[in-house]
């Protein structure tokens, strides 16, 4: 069986995260950098040179030109969230598969427009949640699914924070209401919500309640907030995200028989290996002076960084569609939509004076 040619990517926009994903496309065995587009030709040229685009790569002074390039199979879109609907829908209508940065939209209603366009055109849609593709994530799922070692999930607590500098807090697109109106909730809370859904097998909670006194900037964009999520059977989850606290990326998931701890779930401490801690049937010694059995550390090694694994999986799905007439994989947009629904509920709870919000699919 002959190997399919690599999937040719066009990068739309030169945001900071696009540097990382351009490198990931270069590292991925089934993808290649074909084009980059910016609103300025100089910026696109400088980006292509700085990020190792091959000599023959196309450099465009507009996003439209990337979408009009017949040799572009897929686009990576690191644009401000407010521009996602316009450009993702346009890409889908031109038959381009879409790797879309998170948060995928400003609301689930907006995201539905993107999904509809992708489904109508038969193109693959995936969001850029990189940690989902790390082999550690599969190992964590194995532990959480083990009824003997972990039991039934009872609670999960997630945190993603980093201490932004004054320039970020003043000028970054993530603090501008017209560009990324969800602020910290969209940028960091997305990952916390995804981890919560992942541990709950993507079963949506019944109720979402935002924590009181979130920190907003003078334009009303969230800089720091928290929320609690509740399921009918008593399961509970919390999330906390902030641009104002030290870098932290934690998951603690507690089951009837075990506990999971992850301390770097979004970006591992090291690129080629990652770990988590698993505890089962924990207890004290006879004198209650120490733990009888300490959590065990599990280390998972990987050849490619998680962002390259994401690109490889996305490219594999695109190749299946392009060369084998397969249908797009619906799992990814379904997970994206559920993540967005919970973000919407947290925002609605804040806007309505911290009312509980009932989740409806």
UniProtKB/TrEMBL annotation:
Q: Which domain of life is it from?
A: Eukaryota
- Domain called GFO/IDH/MocA-like oxidoreductase: residue spans: 146-260
Q: Which Pfam families match?
A: GFO_IDH_MocA (PF01408), GFO_IDH_MocA_C3 (PF22725)
Q: Name one GO molecular function term.
A: nucleotide binding
Q: Which InterPro entries match?
A: Gfo/Idh/MocA-like_OxRdtase_N, GFO_IDH_MocA-like_dom, NAD(P)-bd_dom_sf
Residue span, Gfo/Idh/MocA-like oxidoreductase N-terminal domain: 7-126
By sequence similarity, the record places it as follows: Belongs to the Gfo/Idh/MocA family.
Q: Which PANTHER family match?
A: OS10G0403700 PROTEIN, PTHR46368
Q: What is this protein called?
A: Gfo/Idh/MocA-like oxidoreductase N-terminal domain-containing protein
The beginning of the lineage is:
Eukaryota, Viridiplantae, Streptophyta, Embryophyta, Tracheophyta
């Amino acid at each position: 069986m002959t190997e399919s040619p690599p999937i040719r990517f066009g990068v739309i926009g030169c945001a900071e995260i696009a540097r990382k994903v351009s490198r990931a496309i270069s590292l991925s065995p089934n993808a290649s950098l074909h084009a980059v587009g910016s609103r300025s030709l100089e910026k696109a040229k400088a980006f292509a040179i700085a990020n190792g685009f091959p000599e023959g790569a196309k450099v465009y002074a507009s996003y439209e030109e990337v979408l009009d390039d017949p040799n572009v199979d897929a686009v990576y879109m690191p644009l401000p969230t407010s521009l996602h609907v316009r450009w993702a829908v346009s890409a889908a209508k031109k038959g381009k598969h879409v790797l879309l940065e998170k948060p995928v939209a400003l609301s689930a209603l907006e995201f539905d427009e993107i999904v509809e366009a992708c489904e109508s055109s038969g193109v693959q849609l995936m969001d850029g949640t990189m940690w989902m593709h790390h082999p550690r994530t599969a190992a964590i799922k194995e532990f959480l699914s083990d009824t003997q070692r972990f039991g039934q999930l009872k609670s999960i607590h997630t945190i993603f924070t980093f201490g932004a500098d004054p320039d970020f807090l003043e000028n970054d697109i993530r603090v501008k209401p017209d560009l990324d109106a969800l602020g910290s909730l969209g940028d960091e809370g997305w990952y916390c919500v995804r981890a919560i859904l992942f541990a709950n097998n993507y079963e949506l909670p019944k109720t979402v309640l935002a924590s009181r006194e979130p920190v907003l900037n003078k334009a009303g964009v969230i800089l720091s907030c928290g929320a609690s999520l509740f399921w009918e059977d008593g399961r509970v989850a919390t999330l906390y995200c902030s641009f104002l606290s030290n870098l932290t990326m934690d998951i603690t998931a507690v089951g009837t028989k075990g506990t999971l701890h992850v301390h770097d779930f979004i970006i591992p401490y090291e690129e080629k290996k990652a770990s988590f801690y698993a505890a089962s049937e924990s207890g004290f010694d006879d004198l209650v002076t120490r733990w009888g059995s300490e959590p065990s550390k599990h280390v998972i090694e990987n050849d490619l960084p998680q962002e390259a694994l994401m690109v490889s999986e996305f490219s594999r799905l695109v190749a299946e569609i392009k060369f084998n007439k397969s249908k797009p994989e619906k799992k990814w947009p379904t997970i994206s939509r559920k993540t967005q629904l919970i973000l919407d509920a947290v925002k609605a709870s804040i806007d309505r004076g911290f009312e509980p919000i009932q989740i409806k699919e």
